[in-house]
């Protein structure tokens, strides 16, 4: 038994004005993938490590990874898709495909690039089992479970279970190839957004529901249960949360569990409300604080979520309120270039222009 292994990862912040191009991606093939992921805690590591336990030969094909950043250009998506499909065709024969996708990949011509990738893989390999993993910061549409046989998402935030999800996916696809498992899936889109303030899965209000989700996986016949947290920095139709449940030859069981989890997630919407200060309020609180240091976080300008890291709202308010003793970090390539030109020991002067 041979299982093809691939990964295409990008978290696309559509509010970042700087486009992501092919040059931003790191491409690895074949043994480069094994060398890079060996001993790591990534889902691809789980795909590779799952080979021995599940009796298959791992066939690492293609990996394309870029850091979270702006919307990907259409040409970049086309190039990556063509490279990936060509690599799969060249690697034939194999019995299944394990595919790690982020789930928040957006290009200028495709709001659901992950779903389009899966669709094209299915068109090219109509009878080959396909099992997909997602980061829970994903915006999933019906396209993904339509063309993938099984979808699994990490179950933790912060993410500490990627390798475990990879191992779980490896077990499912090996059983599919042997014919002992036939996945049936139920998928629910839940019309809500979970603010990042409440996305910690090991504390309330999410803890009890996430524990229940994991307990469902212990039920006979259930292969996987997942709840997405959504990715709010991507303005696409599928933005929001979703539930996906995978069972073995039991659609009714999958539907019931998906309905149960979706209903309970929806019932948490009041508890998931956020009560955070405005920028002006946060600065005012900080200036009155007797404790130090005070950290003010602009959760909209989330570098880890692909922002441009150049928002000046907090800086502007610090100046307006006459605060002192502060440091604001901004991305300013032109300023960095000026410093490099001045050299060590040189002097430069930067100004902050504020609208009246």
Task: Describe it.
This protein is of the alpha/beta class. The chain folds into 2 domains: 2-267, Cobalamin-binding domain (Rossmann fold, 3-Layer(aba) Sandwich), CATH 3.40.50.280; 279-342, no CATH class. Helices cover 36% and strands 17% of the residues. The chain contains 11 helices and 11 strands. The protein has helices at residues 31-37, 43-54, 74-91, 113-124, 143-147, 162-178, 207-217, 251-267, 279-288, 313-320, 333-342; strands spanning 2-9, 12-13, 26-29, 57-65, 69-70, 96-101, 130-134, 150-153, 183-190, 222-227, 241-248. The protein has a 6-stranded mixed beta sheet, with helices on both faces. A 3-stranded antiparallel beta sheet has the order 9-11-10, with helices on both faces. Helix 5 links the parallel strand 7 (130-134) and strand 8. The protein is globular. The model has no long low-confidence stretch (mean pLDDT 95).
Radius of gyration: 23 Å
Main sheet overview: 6 strands, mixed
Count of structural domains: 2
- What's the SSE pattern? EEEHHEEHEHEHEHEHEEHHHH
If strands are numbered along the chain, what order do they take across the biggest sheet?
3-4-1-6-7-8
Features:
11 strands, 356 residues, 2 domains, Rossmann fold, globular, 3-stranded antiparallel beta sheet, 17% strand, alpha/beta
